[in-house]
Design goal:
heterodimer; A: alpha+beta; Immunoglobulin-like; Serine Threonine Protein Phosphatase 5, Tetratricopeptide repeat; four-stranded mixed beta sheet; four-stranded antiparallel beta sheet; flat; B: mainly beta; Methylamine Dehydrogenase, Chain H; globular; WD40/YVTN_repeat-like_dom_sf (chain B); WD40_repeat_dom_sf (chain B); WD repeat (chain B)
């Protein structure tokens, strides 16, 4: 049951009602005040004040001032009239409830309407802004276009002017040339007559091609040119320069973007060559099949089966020298080392095998399980139980159904707990 | 972008012409508004077309068909009075043609066994001194220097040693022709070798390897003491070598830059400003660069030998014109900023680069 706040005082003018509500010690905020056209409520649990107003008010403009332990309402009446009382009297419970609900509904509706109105306004604003920016950009573009056009036209005009100047200049030159040529022809005719009298060995080279009849301007200009040619130096004495190109392994031309690929290829080639030629001298006395890593692996397996672990290790060593990229060789060698109690070597080999067995795919599951188990065993035998357990768990993760591994893992856990307890 | 947008040079397409053949080279005819396009027609014959730039359009003046497709051409060794173009074709023939009478070559020699990839000329156009010479670089691995006055035999021949497997020569450039005797030829090969031959002493002066086939090379000026050499390569890299100081072991200092994200097909220096050059890429883009010299162009190394210091390169502008590689680029020697480029999309474009005065 709420505690009703009944002490309030109010006065009114023609257009407004002033209501003062003491709220000693209570913290009232805007959220606690609910006001609709005919209903006013202040709710600060457990305190409650409500009033069904005598006449409708304009709740958008009405204000409430909170402070000094009092909430002061200024309610503007919708109709200018004097109220008999602040609240409506003779209201029974049902009506009250009804009114309350109405009020809430109305408030909701109003809120909805407001949000709708806001949305629409926002859209309009956005549209307007967009249009404005578009206009601005259009204007900018036009301006730039116009500038460009102007430039173009200016330049075109200049060009035309220059061109017409060129033409005039050329025409003049041509006219001049014609004039000169006539003079020269006369001169040369006279010279020819002289030549006939003297024997003159022409020492300037008159290329045969130039003496061919050329259309139009006649052979006269050629002669004038020849006289000028005397001023040019003689043709260079022939010489040859031998060149060699940057040496390159590949027959194609060098391209920067391919350099990385080419380096890789060369490295791989170098590695392959190294393995083949490395121990050639030692391997010369071995038979052909003994150079085959797979054959050696089989040999090793057989010797392992018979218990000849050292021989097996030898076989695997040779196989690894020939091809160090086969994980199975390392795996089997690890098993041998385990039997021989070379635990560190066993760990190394199983690790190398695991490295080579990346990426982890279902195909090399069995191999990886074996590798983990062997390494785990080696660790345990070195009393590095935590590492061993890690490897066993890894093996279990790959192959959860293997009972033997599970059992061994359990044993190790037990041992660890045992040692922890002890220490 | 150091300079604000409004101050940077802009590349404007002034005129464009669609061709019915693949143009491998386009060159301005010196002292005129005419340009020459050389290439290969679909039926496997060579094409020479002469255009004139008129009022924003290219007007075809003449067209000639040749037996073999033409790969490259230059006016470098032409005299100003008779502007003859030297071309190299797919069969290895060097020909010099008079554009007013192009039926018969003025000079022709089957100099190489395979396609002539690149050609350069020096000594003509009133630029520099010395005899006019033409150098050709070919797929047969040899680089030959020709004098138009001497028939049949080259005046210099740079060939691989007997028995050496040959590498294609992709580009050649003349340089250092500042007096009558001095001349240098630089050749770039498809395995990244760059070799500098001194023609005065007939010897190999310098070689290096830039690790990717060299597509194009150019000295910033042919007729001065060699100053800078730009070499572009595959895989989007180009190197600028400072050629003023040669170290006995380290050679020339260089700075390299990655651009275009594709093969850089051509580099051409602006004739009016030797520190500005344009590179064209396999993605149809053009980049305009400016080279800035370092505070000191040479310094002494630990043993006291002089070593060059490379400067830096900054990008002035870039533009994408086409989706196909722009295989050829040429600045007009007469009008600053006017250039022509041809791409494998069978178009030739005349471009204007603005604001080069303010760079």
């Amino acid at each position: 049951m709420p505690l009703w706040l009944r002490e309030y005082s109010w006065r009114q003018s023609g257009a407004a009602v002033y209501l003062s509500l003491p709220v000693r010690g209570l913290r009232v905020t805007a959220a606690n005040i609910f006001c609709t056209e005919r209903y006013l409520k202040v709710s600060v649990p457990p305190f409650l004040f409500e009033a069904i107003l005598y006449a409708p008010i304009d709740e958008t403009n009405s204000t409430a001032k909170i402070g000094n332990g009092i909430v002061f309402f200024t309610l503007y009446k919708k109709e200018v009239a004097m109220w008999e009382s602040l609240t409506v009297v003779n209201v029974n419970k049902e009506e009250l409830q009804h009114l309350r609900e109405n009020a809430v509904l109305k408030a909701h509706e109003k809120a909805k309407e407001e949000t709708e109105a806001k949305k629409v306004l926002k859209q309009e604003h956005k549209k307007y802004a967009l249009e404005a920016t578009m206009k601005l950009e259009e204007a900018e573009r036009k301006r730039i276009e116009e500038l460009k056009e102007q430039e173009r036209q200016k330049v075109s005009k200049e060009l035309e002017l220059w061109r017409s100047q060129q033409e005039d200049a050329e025409k003049q030159k041509r006219v001049q040339k014609e004039g000169e040529r006539y003079e020269e022809v006369e001169q040369l005719k006279e010279k020819k007559k002289e030549k006939i009298n003297k024997t003159r060995i022409p020492n300037e080279e008159i290329p045969k091609t130039k003496l061919k009849p050329t259309k139009g301007h006649g052979s006269c200009s050629i002669f004038s040119e020849n006289l000028k040619e005397e001023q040019l130096p003689a043709p260079r004495s022939a010489g040859t320069i031998k060149i060699s190109f940057t040496s390159r392994v590949f027959p194609t031309a060098l391209r920067e973007s391919r350099v990385a690929e080419e380096e890789e290829w060369l490295q791989k080639q170098a590695e392959a060559r190294r393995t083949i030629t490395a121990d050639l001298s030692e391997l010369e006395d071995l038979k052909e099949e003994e150079k085959n890593p797979d054959w050696l692996k089989d040999k090793g397996n057989k010797m392992f089966a018979t218990g000849n672990y050292l021989a097996a290790v030898n076989a695997y060593n040779l196989a690894i020298r020939l091809n160090n990229k086969l994980p199975l060789l390392y795996l089997n060698r690890a098993a041998c080392h385990l039997k021989l109690r070379n635990l560190h070597k066993a760990i190394e080999d199983s690790s190398k095998a695991l490295e080579l067995l990346t990426p982890p795919v279902p195909d090399n599951e069995t191999a990886r399980v074996k590798a983990y188990v062997r390494r785990g065993t080696a660790f345990c035998q070195l009393e590095l139980y935590t590492e061993g357990l890690q490897d066993y768990e890894a093996a279990l993760k790959i192959d959860p159904k293997n009972k033997a591994i599970e059992k061994d893992a359990e044993k190790i856990r037990y041992t660890i707990q045992g040692t922890v307890q002890k220490s | 972008m150091s300079a604000p947008c409004a101050e940077r040079p802009q590349v404007v397409v002034h005129a464009q012409q669609s061709l019915h053949y693949t143009a491998f080279e386009c060159r301005w005819v010196p002292r005129s508004a005419r340009l020459l396009c050389l290439g290969s027609a679909p039926r496997g014959s060579g094409v020479l077309q002469l255009y004139e730039l008129r009022a924003g359009r290219l007007a075809l003046l003449s067209e000639v068909e040749k037996a073999k497709p033409i790969k490259c051409g230059t006016f470098g060794a032409a005299s100003l009075q008779r502007r003859h173009v030297a071309t190299g074709d797919f069969a290895g023939t060097l020909g010099i043609w008079d554009l007013e009478a192009p039926e018969i070559p003025v000079y022709s020699v089957r100099g190489h066994k395979e396609i002539i990839n690149s050609i350069d000329g020096v000594g003509g156009l009133g630029v520099g001194e010395g005899a006019p010479e033409i150098v050709t670089g070919s797929r047969d691995g040899t680089v030959k220097v020709w004098d138009p006055r001497q028939k049949e035999t080259p005046v210099a021949n740079m060939e691989p040693v007997q028995g050496e497997s040959k590498r294609d020569c992709w580009t050649v450039a003349f340089g250092n022709a500042y007096n009558q005797e001095e001349r240098v030829v630089c050749a770039g090969y498809d395995n990244g070798d760059i070799k500098l031959f001194d023609l005065k002493t007939m010897s190999l002066r310098w070689e290096t390897n830039i690790k990717n086939g060299v597509c194009s090379m150019e000295f910033d000026r042919k007729d001065i003491n060699m100053n800078k050499l730009v070499a572009t390569s595959l895989e989007g890299k180009f190197h600028v070598f400072d050629m003023r100081t040669q170290h006995p072991t380290k050679g020339f200092a260089s700075v390299s830059e990655k651009a275009h994200k594709s093969t850089i097909w051509q580099v051409r220096h602006l004739p009016q400003n030797r520190d500005i050059f344009m590179t064209s890429g396999g993605a149809g883009s053009l980049h305009l660069w400016k080279y800035e010299y370092p505070a000191q162009r040479s310094k002494k190394d630990l043993e006291g030998a002089e070593m060059g210091v490379a400067g830096s390169v900054s990008l002035l502008q870039n533009v994408t014109l086409s989706t196909q590689p722009i295989s050829s680029l040429d600045w007009s020697p007469d009008k600053k900023g006017l250039c022509v480029c041809s791409a494998f999309d069978q178009t030739v474009r005349v471009l204007i680069v603005t604001k080069l005065n303010k760079v």
